[in-house]
Structures are given as C-alpha cells and as structure tokens.
Write a structure and sequence with these properties.
123 residues; mainly beta; 6-stranded mixed beta sheet; 4-stranded antiparallel beta sheet
Length: 123
C-alpha cells in the first residue's frame, strides 16, 4: 500500500526550529515530486513546498520562503522539511504527499495522506 507518513512535529516557541520527516513506502519514491502541505483551523489544505524528482528544484509558498527548506533522501525514501524562524501562523497539521512538480498542488490522481503531524508555535 502507498503510504506517506509525516512525523517530527511538536510545540516550539516563536523563532524556533523543527525538522519534519516524511517516510514513504509502497511506490517508487525517487520518481515522484514530494510536497508538504498544512491545514489550519477553518481552512483547507495549503501547499507549503514541493520538491521535484530530478534536480532537487523546489517551490515554496510565499509565506514560508526563506524560512523553510525541503529536501529528500531517495535512498531512505524520506523527505524532510526544515522549518526555521517559526511563527505562530505556521501552526497547523502538516502532511506530506505527492505533488505536481513546479507547483504547490497535490497530485489529484495519487492523492495519499496520512494523519499528518501537528506543529504548534506558541510562547
């Protein structure tokens, strides 16, 4: 079965950092663009970042650009989201999934989601 499980969230003070991990299985990880998404109360799922499968180029939401860095280790079937300079507005449940390369959109045909991991930024 295809699985994309996010973990590594927690409670962090404003200005702090977290590194989220996405453990993937059940598909050829290295051939797909992988993205991070988040859901906040009262809102739909927002695309945060998407990294392609070839040259490592990535896209970021304007709200996180310069603070978040997406990366991947294809040998480990794992993607990461390094989050620095966290702000309270970054609070939400973060999910990883397959994205359309060059976009911040989830792939509609390969729409797999786990429970996500909760990130809370608060003093």
């Amino acid at each position: 079965d295809v699985q994309l499980q996010a973990f590594g969230g927690g409670l962090v003070q404003p200005g702090g950092s977290l590194r989220l991990s996405c453990a993937a299985s059940g598909f050829t990880f290295s051939t797909y663009a992988i993205g991070w998404f988040r859901q906040t109360p009262g809102k739909g799922r927002e695309g945060v970042s998407c990294i392609n499968s070839l040259d490592g180029s990535a896209d970021y939401a304007d709200s996180v650009k310069g603070r978040f860095t997406i990366s991947r280790d294809n040998a480990k079937n794992t993607a990461y989201l390094q989050m620095d300079g966290l702000k309270p507005e970054d609070t939400g449940r973060y999910y990883c999934g397959i994205c359309d390369p060059g976009t911040l959109k989830a792939n509609t045909d390969l729409d797999y989601w786990g429970q996500g991991t909760l990130v809370t930024v608060s003093s």
